[in-house]
């Protein structure tokens, strides 16, 4: 752990412009903790691999940044997954974060509807209505936890706020940004995000106000002293985070330390050891075989192609598996006998 030096031009960790890294921080006078994430080559690899339209690439980049922010809080080796299912032009998004540092992502979309929405269509319009599920998987059915948020025309930032309001009851603020920038001789995608939570020693200070009870008749006012007021420290922290501009989260010349210094230098901010992150898929021949073994004999016959082979392509990394049906059946029979 180190305190960011008083000069914004210096960096306590020498990570000026560091990509593919998660930087935890704490602002102790305001009782807030959080993380900043910068994704460079990892998210560019994911988005370039599938040749997504620009609007879909931005949406998936946001989802990847949010998933890394949330998944990097895991204190064990497990998996955090963000998945959407909705009626918008992008009807499915899946992002996996495997602790401590592996991320993969994919999106399914209707190309015609995406084109109709336009190249600058926002996340909310592309997602439409449906739900967003966030799943923590520690490796067994007994250790799975899932929170679900209704998608009702909001983007990932507001969906994250809603998730923490209803599932964790922790005051939280999230900022996300994605951009395609000129780097070297070409263009490259970058994504960034900041997550901040109010974690005072006294739980009463973190109480959340109930949802607004509705409109009063004209000419009436409400004075309800029982409704908790937001803590002054949290109000200040939120106000500071609200000043973040998108370019500050993706600009390679603005390090995470520089951004945190700009936001919190008057209060003092401490940063902890940064954690690297990289794009990596979990697929393998063994996993593909595990999936096929769950099929019935009739289903296995149905997936044999016209060329007499079983061809399976990973939706995440596009790796193609070409399998001989006879070898597949022999492996399944052998394992059954064992």
UniProtKB/TrEMBL annotation:
It comes from the Bacteria. GO terms for cellular component: cytoplasm. Pfam families: HSP33. GO terms for biological process: protein refolding. NCBIfam families: PRK01402.1. This is Hsp33-like chaperonin. GO terms for molecular function: protein folding chaperone; unfolded protein binding. Keywords: Chaperone, Cytoplasm, Disulfide bond, Redox-active center, Zinc. Residues 211-230 are annotated as: Disordered.
């Amino acid at each position: 752990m180190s305190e960011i030096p008083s000069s914004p031009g210096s960096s306590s960790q020498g990570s000026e412009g560091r990509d593919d890294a998660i930087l935890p921080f704490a602002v102790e006078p305001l009782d807030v903790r959080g993380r900043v994430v910068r994704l460079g080559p990892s998210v560019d690899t994911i988005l370039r691999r599938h040749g997504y339209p620009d609007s879909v690439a931005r949406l998936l980049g946001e989802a990847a940044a949010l998933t890394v922010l949330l998944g990097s809080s895991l204190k064990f080796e497990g998996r955090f997954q963000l998945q959407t299912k909705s009626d918008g032009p992008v009807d499915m998004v899946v992002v996996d974060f495997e602790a401590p540092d592996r991320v993969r992502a994919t999106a399914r979309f209707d190309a015609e509807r995406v084109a109709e929405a336009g190249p600058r269509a926002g996340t909310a319009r592309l997602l439409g209505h449906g739900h967003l599920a966030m799943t923590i998987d520690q490796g067994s059915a007994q250790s799975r936890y899932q929170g679900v948020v209704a998608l009702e025309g909001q983007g990932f930032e507001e969906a994250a706020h809603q998730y923490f309001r209803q599932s964790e009851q922790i005051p939280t603020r999230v900022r996300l940004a994605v951009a395609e920038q000129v780097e070297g001789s070409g263009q490259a995608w970058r994504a960034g995000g900041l997550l901040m939570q109010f974690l005072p020693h006294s739980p009463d200070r973190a109480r959340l106000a109930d949802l607004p009870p509705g409109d009063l008749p004209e000419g009436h006012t409400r004075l309800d002293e029982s409704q908790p007021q937001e803590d002054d420290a949290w109000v200040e922290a939120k106000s500071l985070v609200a000043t973040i501009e998108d370019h500050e989260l993706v600009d390679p010349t603005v390090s995470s330390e520089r951004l945190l210094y700009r936001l919190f230098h008057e209060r003092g901010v401490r940063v902890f050891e940064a954690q690297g992150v990289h794009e990596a898929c979990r697929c393998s021949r063994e996993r593909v075989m595990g999936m096929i073994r769950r099929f019935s004999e009739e289903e296995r016959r149905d997936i044999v192609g016209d060329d007499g082979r079983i061809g399976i392509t990973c939706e995440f990394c596009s790796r193609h598996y070409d399998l001989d049906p006879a070898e597949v059946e022999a492996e399944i029979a052998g394992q059954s006998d064992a």
